[in-house]
Every structure is written in structure tokens, then in C-alpha cells.
Backbone:
């Protein structure tokens, strides 16, 4: 049910979930399986129920910069693109209601990295079996949605680079390959199988579930015992209220808004908070640090005319490569867009073809890390985001993009893809040197909207860990963090399914339920 708290009143539940996004929807559904457990979800945006703008997957690109987008910006990026709009979803379902729903299980080595960072209990054998509990419908792009040019991209990439064609990237761990992605969608009707659709929509009638929509959480408050049990919120009418958790507050607001809320509540780098006049409740220097992303650049071609119209979401196929000898994971990824994605190249002065395609060389495990911080103690002011793109001392990220642009040209020159293409529009065939490709690649770089890591979990002796491997916030009682901000390192692949797995695991940590049985693909 949906409810509004009376002005200034306080309402109480067993669990309060801050953020009705990917993780929050999973937790709300799982926790309310117990009819005696009262759960409240605080979501800053509206419902997605019955809204085809949200529910139709192929409309995702029209959601960017819309009323469903918080639209965060970055500080100046001296070695990258300073004009990126970092979309964060303002709608029930969060980014799973807003993104392309590309769905990959994390690779076993990605989770091994987490264990190496002190995250006991997050090993592949424990986490990957949770795939069997996922309620999202994850399937390879349907045959009817496989555009001929995307098929020819897959064929050309396989032939030119000698990588296999992968029918299902989730069938087993992979080192490289080209193929159509798996998506969380229902091909009939092109409908999302987002976290809200799959987990929440079927249980909205549960009497122990309360959704507070268009409601913004801006501070965590203590109770008379000193536990962080209360959340200060403002509804759409601007009136204040508080929501109390008798058991725990679960922060699921994402890698930007979860650390933002913690810092506004006095949890973060003590010096930074004191300078803003915020009372320090716990000096947690890791809050806002370790800001991760999957940066990517773009190379654009004009096609001879309009392409066939069928597609799931206009970026249905991709390519993974392993450049490093002996590596067991891809270190270069491409999305293949069936539309000319020119938001950054146009700003650099390149023409916009009426019909075109592009490839986006992507850095799967970028070594450049950034940070975020509060500009002021005003909850309405956006925080500062500094991803520090392409600043790793070894130049790994920059080299990955340069290699990617060259490899993209190899694929484009191979049959049958080359028969579709008229000319390279950006950066153009005259841009060939490492220095020129790097300059273009970094200035035209974009994001695939995967911020993570800003409240990372870790061992007790890790001074920068914000939460422990049980997801419990340091320096406080009664709060856990369940979203991509807890990632200690970035998974190689698109991280939405990893967030779903984190949330399913968190539900077991909260309820004491045993995890699923070992899966044959667990590592």
C-alpha cells in the first residue's frame, strides 16, 4: 500500500528501507514474506506501475535527463570529459527502471577480488548460487529483436578477432567472446523485468508493506538509546516527518545518495564534515571515497541509410576481449549501438549522421578511482563527484581506450559489418596516433552509469571500510548498507545483477535464512 505520513508525525516499522531501487525492491519483497514483519520503503520518485514510459525497455534513452533523472554532474575532469551527466533514477525500481537491463552474473574472479579485500562470505561459492533465487526474468535477446546489423557485428567481431560467439554469457564464466547480451525483460511487448516489476509489483497488496513515494530522506537520527533508528524525511509537499525502524534501517539509495545521506548525518571524514558545520557522529574516512565507474569512449560510423527497426533496446550486442596474456577475465568490453550516440562527439564539433552505428570501448576494471563529497550541509544541494577519469599512474585506462578504438576499426573493416558502413564520422580515419586517439577517446568518453564503491565493505582492520562483511555500518548500531556502494572493487561486467545478488544475500543476513545450495557454475 502507499501511504503518506501526517505532517510532523512519526511512524514505526520493523525495517525502514531508504531507496526503492534495485536492492530496495528485493529487500522489501523478501522481508515482507514474513507477515509479522512491517517494512517501509522510502523512495524519492514516483511509482512505475502502469507507466509505459518506464516499463517499455526501449524507451530508456528518453529517460535520461527527464523528470525521472536526478542528473548529477562532475567536477572538472582534466584528463576526461567534464560534461557527463551521471543519471541516477528517480522512480520505483531505481536504475533497473531506468537502464538497459543488461544482465551479467559477476565473474568468479570478481568475487575473489572482494574476498581478497577482506570481505569474508562473499566468495563465488557462496554468492553465485543466489542466481537461482533471482525473480527477474533474464534471457538472451530474443531472435525477433536481433537486428541484422547487430548480427553482422557479432560475426565480424568473431572473425576479425578470433573470439567465440557466445550464445548465453551467463551459462558459464567467459574470458572473451562476442554475442547478444542477456537482458532482464519480456520480449513480448518489450517490457522490463526490473526489480520493481519482478519483486514488488506482485506483492504491493501485502498489508505489512508500506511505500512512501515522492519522499526524500535527508538525515538519520538516533533514538533515546543512541541507536540510529529514525529517518528524517520530507514528502512531496515539503512537510517534515520521521520514520522509525524498530529493528534496522537499510540504506539502499545507491553509490551517490547513500554516502550523501551518511555524511549529512555525521558519518564520514571528520575534517570535511566539521568544516561544513555537521556534527561528527563517527569519523569514517572511507565514506565517499573509492568512487568507481566503467568509463567508455565511442567511435561512430555513418550507415548508407536507415537500419531495420527491430531491437530490444538499441544496444543489444557486445564484445569482450582479453588482451593481457594469461589473464582469466576480459579487460576490454564493447557495446554495439544501433543508433549514433553522438552526445559527446557533437560537442567536440563532429557531424551527426542521420543514420549510423557506434561501438563503445569500455574499461571493465578501471584503475582510476575517484571520490565524492558534500558541497554544503544543505540536503538539497547536489554533492561533488570527482571520478578522476584516466588518472591511474600506469595509464591502464587510457591504453584500454586507445586499444579499443583501434580494435573497433578492425571489426568495422571486417565482413559482413563493413558492407553496412559508409564512413567513420568520429574520430575519423585521419586520427591514428596513440596521442591523438587518446586525446579524442578521453574527451569523447562517457559513462555507462555504474557508480559504485563509495561505502565499501571490508575487514575490521581496514581503515577505509565503511561497513563490515555483514553490511553493518561502522560506528553505529542499527544500520546496514545494501547497494552498489558496498562494492570494494568493480565487477568486470554490468553490475545490476551483482546488486540483486547482494540484496538477496543481505535478506538472508537479516533473517538468518540459509543461503542457496551450491551451483555448478559457482566457480
Residues:
Amino acid at each position: 500500500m502507499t501511504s503518506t505520513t501526517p505532517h510532523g508525525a512519526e511512524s514505526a516499522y520493523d525495517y525502514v528501507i531508504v531507496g526503492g531501487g534495485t536492492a530496495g525492491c528485493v529487500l522489501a519483497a523478501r522481508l515482507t514474506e514474513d507477515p509479522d514483519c512491517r517494512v517501509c520503503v522510502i523512495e524519492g520518485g514516483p511509482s512505475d506501475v502502469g507507466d509505459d514510459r518506464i516499463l517499455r525497455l526501449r524507451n530508456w534513452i528518453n529517460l535520461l535527463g527527464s523528470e525521472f533523472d536526478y542528473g548529477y554532474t562532475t567536477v572538472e575532469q582534466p584528463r576526461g570529459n567534464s560534461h557527463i551527466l551521471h543519471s541516477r533514477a528517480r522512480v520505483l525500481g531505481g536504475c533497473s527502471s531506468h537502464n538497459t537491463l543488461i544482465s551479467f552474473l559477476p565473474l568468479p574472479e570478481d568475487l575473489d577480488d572482494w574476498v581478497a579485500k577482506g570481505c569474508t562470505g562473499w566468495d563465488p561459492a557462496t554468492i553465485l548460487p543466489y542466481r537461482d533465487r533471482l525473480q527477474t526474468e533474464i534471457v538472451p535477446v530474443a531472435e525477433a529483436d536481433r537486428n541484422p546489423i547487430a548480427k553482422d557485428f557479432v560475426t565480424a567481431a568473431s572473425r576479425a578477432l578470433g573470439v567465440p560467439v557466445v550464445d548465453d554469457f551467463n551459462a558459464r564464466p567467459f574470458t572473451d567472446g562476442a554475442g547478444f547480451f542477456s537482458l532482464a525483460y519480456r520480449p513480448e511487448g518489450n517490457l522490463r523485468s526490473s526489480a520493481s516489476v519482478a519483486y514488488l509489483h506482485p506483492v504491493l497488496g501485502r498489508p505489512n508493506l508500506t511505500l512512501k513515494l515522492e519522499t526524500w530522506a535527508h538525515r538519520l537520527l538516533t533514538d533515546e538509546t543512541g541507536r540510529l533508528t529514525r529517518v528524517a524525511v520530507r514528502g512531496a509537499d515539503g512537510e517534515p516527518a520521521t520514520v522509525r525502524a524498530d529493528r534496522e534501517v537499510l540504506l539502499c539509495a545507491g553509490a551517490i545518495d547513500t554516502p550523501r545521506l551518511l555524511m549529512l548525518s555525521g558519518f564520514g571524514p571528520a575534517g570535511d564534515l566539521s568544516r561544513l558545520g555537521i556534527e561528527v557522529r563517527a569519523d569514517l574516512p572511507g565514506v565517499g571515497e573509492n568512487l568507481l565507474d566503467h568509463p567508455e569512449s565511442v567511435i561512430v560510423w555513418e550507415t548508407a541509410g536507415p537500419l531495420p527497426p527491430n531491437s530490444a533496446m538499441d544496444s543489444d550486442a557486445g564484445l569482450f576481449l582479453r588482451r593481457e596474456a594469461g589473464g582469466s577475465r576480459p579487460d576490454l568490453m564493447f557495446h554495439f549501438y544501433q543508433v549514433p550516440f553522438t552526445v559527446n562527439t557533437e560537442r567536440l564539433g563532429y557531424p551527426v549522421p542521420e543514420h549510423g552505428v557506434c561501438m563503445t570501448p569500455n574499461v571493465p576494471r578501471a584503475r582510476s578511482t575517484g571520490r565524492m563529497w558534500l558541497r554544503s550541509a544543505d540536503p538539497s544541494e547536489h554533492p561533488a563527484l570527482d571520478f578522476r577519469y584516466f588518472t591511474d599512474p600506469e595509464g591502464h585506462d587510457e591504453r584500454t581506450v586507445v586499444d579499443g578504438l583501434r580494435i573497433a576499426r578492425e571489426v568495422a573493416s571486417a565482413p559482413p559489418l563493413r558492407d553496412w558502413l559508409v564512413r567513420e564520422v568520429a574520430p575519423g580515419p585521419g586520427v591514428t596516433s596513440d596521442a591523438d586517439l587518446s586525446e579524442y577517446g578521453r574527451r569523447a568518453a562517457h559513462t555507462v552509469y555504474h557508480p559504485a564503491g563509495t561505502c565499501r565493505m571490508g575487514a575490521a582492520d581496514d581503515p577505509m571500510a565503511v561497513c563490515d562483511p555483514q553490511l553493518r555500518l561502522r560506528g553505529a548500531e542499527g544500520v546496514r548498507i545494501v547497494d552498489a556502494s558496498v562494492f570494494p572493487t568493480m565487477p568486470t561486467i554490468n553490475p545490476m545483477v551483482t546488486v540483486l545478488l547482494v540484496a538477496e544475500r543481505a535478506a538472508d543476513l537479516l533473517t538468518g535464512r540459509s543461503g542457496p545450495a551450491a551451483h555448478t557454475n559457482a566457480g
